[in-house]
Amino acid sequence: MPLTFSRIGILARNNDARVEQTLRPLIAHLLLRGAQVFVEDELRLEVAQTTSCSRTDIGRQCDLVVAVGGDGTLLAASRAVAETQTPLLGVNLGRLGFLTDVLPEDMRAALDHILAGEFIKKLRLRLSAHIVRANGDDDGENFHALNECVIRNQEFARILDFDTYMNDSFISHHRADGIVVATPTGSTAYALSGGGPVVHPELPALALVPICPHMLSDRPLLVAANQRLEVRISAAPDSIALFTADGQLTRALAPGDRVLIERAQHDLILIHPPDYDYFHILRHKLGWGREQDTSRSG
After folding, report:
1. Could you read off the pLDDT of 211-229 as tens digits, one per residue?
2. 246: phi > 0 → left, psi -120 to 50 → alpha, else beta; which?
3. Which of 40, 143, 243, 283 is paired with 56 by a 20 to 30 Å CA distance?
4. In the chain, what is the greatest distance between 2 CA atoms, to the nearest angstrom?
5. Residue 93 contacts by C-beta under 8 Å, 6 or more apart in sequence?
6. Per-residue pLDDT tens for 69-98?
7. Is 110 in contact with 135 (CB distance < 8 Å)?
8. pLDDT, the chain, mean
């Protein structure tokens, strides 16, 4: 029977002995199944019958990419494959594993199902952001995020003043440590710890979550994902801020700078084993329902 995916790329976290211990049996299993395996060249993993490939090219070369590591590894991998619409599967070597839901001990069986065409495909919306400087200059650089874009104070002892807009309509003035603009995928990350809601990944919405707001009335806000959002940093000389995308791409923001955030053109395609259950992951990772009051009856 022909494989559903025959050209499989491997992305992973560098310089981690646990990763190599997982990669070698993973690659051996894929080769045994008759797949052509492409390994990211930065891993410097010399395995016979594999092809070395750059991270920037792996999405074009493969019809499935496997990210081995934690959620951070998958977030970085998403930027390498989303534009080419190459499906991504995560093998979890991290702590939480909201996105990398295949455990190393289960990966052979999971891959057998997936290669046989037995899998669940999910689309996850992404963010695209760019910075316009106070003098009107556009950096011309787009930042993509699967979880969130964050604008926060660069000096942690100071409150940041900023304004938010949606499609040029003023939302509010904020005094806070910053703000998180999260996708549904990112609603269980930084935004959740900031008091934001859990948003089902199939809901086309974005969450604006102020970070430690000065006013308790400054609450999280959900908006439709097709809206363009803007965060304008105060022009006051001491308004020094920091922009981050998925906690991995960072740029300094000066007084009067603006950050424009909207839905990215391409969603990420995530592949899950056939027994994938989103609510099971929430119950397991967030501890829902663990403490039940057995004293109640009826």
Report:
1. 999 998 999 999 999 999 9
2. left
3. 243
4. 67
5. 13, 16, 18, 19, 22, 68, 69, 70, 73, 100, 104
6. 989 999 999 999 999 999 999 999 877 678
7. no
8. 92
pLDDT at 246 over 90: yes
What whole-number distance in Å separates Cα of residue 90 and Cα of residue 97?
9
The CATH architecture assigned to 127-263 reads Sandwich (2.60)
71 is catalytic: yes
Bridge pairing between strands 178-182 and 148-153: antiparallel
Catalytic member of 71, 101, 246, 257: 71
Q: What number of other Cβ atoms are within 10 A of residue 243's Cβ? A: 24
pTM summary value = 0.92
Q: Where are the domains of the chain?
A: 7-124+267-286, 127-263
d(CA 194, CA 173): 18
Q: Supply the CATH classification number for the domain 7-124+267-286.
A: 3.40.50.10330
